[in-house]
Amino acid sequence: MTGCVHCISPPPVTLYTPRTSPSSASRSSFSFSGDAVHSLYRVRRVTRSPSIISPKFQIVAAEKAKPLKIMISGAPASGKGTQCELITQKYGLVHISAGDLLRAEIASGSENGRRAKEFMEKGQLVPDEIVVMMVKDRLSQKDSEQNGWLLDGYPRSSSQGKALNGFGFQPDLFIVLEVPENILIERVVGRRLDPVTGKIYHMKYSPPETEEIAARLTQRFDDTEEKAKLRLKTHNQNVTDVLSMYDDITIKIEGNRSKDEVFAQIDTALSELLQQRNTAPSSLLS
Ligand code: AP5
User: Fold this and answer.
1) 147: CA distance to ligand 1 center in Å?
2) pTM of the model
3) Distance CA 7, CA 3 (A)
4) Please, where are the H alpha helices in 40-157?
5) Residues catalogued as catalytic
6) How many CA atoms, within 13 angstroms, populate the side-chain half-sphere of residue 207?
7) How far is the CA of 143 from the centre of ligand 1 (A)?
8) Of ligand 1's atoms, which has the minimum distance to the CA of residue 76?
9) pLDDT tens for each residue of 39-80
10) For residue 56, how many C-alpha atoms fall within 13 Å in the half-sphere facing its CB?
């Protein structure tokens, strides 16, 4: 599925009935939200004469759709974290950010955290022996298994991808955010984080809503222009290897648009993926 989201061929017209709202039976009136996504009944077309106009669908199984497994990738400050906030809000997936796991490890004061910080300060990849098990353990937790996961910033090398593969973790979709390099540096240096809500801001593009929030915002230790350039260099050294691993399930998203426009592209892809799943014969459901 490489290429622009708009190039994905439309799925067959199909009717979905969310468990929470049995009456909202038309696709056009249905919007995915939170748990509802994971509670979809599979429905199947009833074969009857096409001349009969009333809807010809019946629920054939009350089985839950399998949870989505998504990876999101892109250069530093391409908007991965921002989009993950929006995706999890709508689709209820568990957001697992390799960078956040590493920062939590640093904050814990552990030896792994201390070592990780040495690499992060230089904009380099933290060694696999620290990152791989950290991510694998988080993916193995019950909430990720039950609700599906959204893996952000992993894998960043083919060895990381292979390791995850070896543990049996395969994504359904690999999202790549594409943003021109000259935009990325400005995004990095303007980024601020709210330690209370975890929300990501940008002093120009996504400023804090109130002065109270503005006063408590923090900046990441690697969000300087100098370190962003090092991170970008590391990204560029590894990106081709990583992309080649997921070629057949990759969707490239134009990331240099407003965050809502970027999300709209992702949303379309995820909705279509869910639709395809729910129309596939049981034997094809992955
Ligand atoms: P990590 O924390 O993952 O950093 P990163 O990949 O450099 O990505 P960022 O978090 O900087 O950016 P983002 O794409 O999430 O953008 P955001 O949404 O915040 O990793 C940090 C370090 O940890 C690495 O350098 C490495 O050392 C280590 N590491 C991590 N994973 C590893 C791994 N797998 N293996 C080994 N080492 C690893 O947006 C950025 C800014 O832009 C924000 O201010 C936001 O408000 C703004 N913005 C977002 N979208 C838009 C938009 N559409 N328009 C305008 N502004 C926008």
Assistant:
1) 24
2) 0.80
3) 7
4) 80-91, 98-108, 111-121, 128-139, 142-147
5) 80, 156, 191, 220, 231
6) 7
7) 24
8) 7
9) 333 333 333 333 334 444 444 444 567 899 999 999 999 999
10) 9
